[in-house]
């Protein structure tokens, strides 16, 4: 049996020491290792830290804006400026069902994830081929994936009491009442990255076991 070709990966572990420089660092690494081209950009990094309304500091607010809005914008800006995106590329922003199931402890997380969804709608409109400035990447799609309760290390490390609270909140709303697994989300992202999803752009796709239902 022939082995499957290994997808080349960009290893940036330990290299992005200053977040304000990460766009340049990523683009420089693409130039070195991937012949100055990119076909798929998935933004899954975020700042999920809770913040109590009435007690948040300017630094906490700025941290959320930096991690969830400014950084993905800077990365896409740099890659577009250098014309690294190829025709029919894919941009995926990992969002959260918190954008539609608000919680008073995650004001900035929910609002900045909503901003990410808005970014994708604008990128979709710009990069599809209608705008002359971006015809070098025509056919590019941009979509968000709204992720629900997922059994990640970060969730489990919150402790059994918090995990039980999450279950009590999310499971009743889900059509499939269980924890999502990382591969459940990864498969949705993989679908959007493939050729079969070439006609899907500017959308929010729910990967939440039916926790939110987007028309």
Which value, in Å, is the CA radius of gyration? 18 Å
What is the succession of H and E elements? HEHEHEHHHE
CATH architecture classification = 3-Layer(aba) Sandwich
Largest sheet: 4 strands, parallel
Describe this structure in words.
This protein is of the alpha/beta class and 215 residues long. It has a single domain (19-207), classed as Rossmann fold. The protein has 6 helices and 4 strands, in the order αβαβαβαααβ. The chain has helices at 22-33, 58-81, 107-127, 153-156, 160-170, 182-193; strands at 38-43, 85-96, 141-147, 204-207. The protein has a 4-stranded parallel beta sheet with strand order 1-2-3-4, with helices on both faces. The longest helix has 24 residues, at 58-81. Residues 1-6 have low confidence and may be disordered. GO terms for molecular function: oxidoreductase activity, acting on CH-OH group of donors. Keywords: NADP, Oxidoreductase.
Provide the descriptors you would attach to this structure in a database record:
Rossmann fold, alpha/beta, four-stranded parallel β-sheet, 4 strands, 39% helix, globular, 215 residues
Write the layout of secondary structure elements.
Elements lengths: L21 H12 L4 E6 L14 H24 L3 E12 L10 H21 L13 E7 L5 H4 L3 H11 L11 H12 L10 E4 L8
Parallel strand pairs: 1-2, 2-3, 3-4
InterPro entries: NAD(P)-bd_dom_sf, Sc_DH/Rdtase_CS, SDR_fam
Family: Belongs to the short-chain dehydrogenases/reductases (SDR) family.
Keywords: NADP, Oxidoreductase
